[in-house]
Specification:
CATH topology: Nuclear Transport Factor 2, Chain: A
Number of helices: 4
Distance between the termini: 25 Å
Largest sheet: 7 strands, mixed
Helix content: 25-40%
CATH class: Alpha Beta
Oligomer: single chain
Shape: globular
CATH architecture: Roll
Radius of gyration: 14 Å
Structural class: alpha+beta
Strand content: 35-45%
C-alpha cells in the first residue's frame, strides 16, 4: 500500500458509497479491482470475480435500489486499509417496510481501488440485495 492514507481510504469509500446510492453501475465498478471479493456474514457465503460482481451490481441497480425506502448512516470508521459503515436500511417490499441493520466493511485492494467488501446482515437482507445472484454465492 505504500503511502496510502486513511484520508484517501475515506475518500474512496465515500465515492463508492455515493455511486452505489445513485445507481451508477459503471462508476461503482470503476472503484473496484478486476476481481473483487464480497463476503456475507454471518451467512458464510461469498462472491468473487469481476463478472459475478457485475451481475450483482446490475441487479442491485435494477431490482434492489427501487426497494429502498430510506437509510440512515449510523456510524463510520476509517483506517488506511478499510472503511466500515453501519446503516439502518428500510426497504419497501410489496408494500411492507422492513428495516435492516447492516455493517459493510470496504477493503483496500490495490492501485487506489477497493478489493471488495464484507457485509454483515441478515440472510433476508442479503437475499434481497443479491437477488438472483444469491444462487451463485459460494461457501467461505
Amino acid at each position: 500500500m505504500g503511502d496510502w492514507t486513511a484520508q484517501q481510504m475515506a475518500e474512496l469509500g465515500a465515492r463508492h458509497a455515493l455511486l452505489e446510492g445513485q445507481g451508477d453501475l459503471e462508476g461503482v465498478l470503476a472503484t473496484l479491482v478486476d476481481d473483487p471479493v464480497y463476503e456475507f456474514h454471518p451467512l458464510g457465503r461469498r462472491m468473487a470475480g469481476g463478472e459475478l460482481v457485475r451481475q450483482f451490481y446490475t441487479q442491485f441497480v435494477e431490482r434492489f435500489l427501487p426497494l429502498r425506502h430510506s437509510y440512515t448512516l449510523l456510524g463510520e470508521w476509517v483506517n488506511e486499509t478499510s472503511v466500515a459503515q453501519e446503516y439502518d436500511v428500510s426497504l419497501d417490499v410489496e408494500g411492507i417496510v422492513e428495516t435492516h441493520r447492516v455493517l459493510g466493511i470496504l477493503q483496500y485492494g490495490e492501485r487506489g481501488l477497493l478489493g471488495g467488501e464484507r457485509v454483515y446482515a441478515s440472510e433476508r437482507f442479503i437475499r434481497l440485495m443479491t437477488g438472483p445472484v444469491f444462487a451463485s454465492l459460494t461457501p467461505l
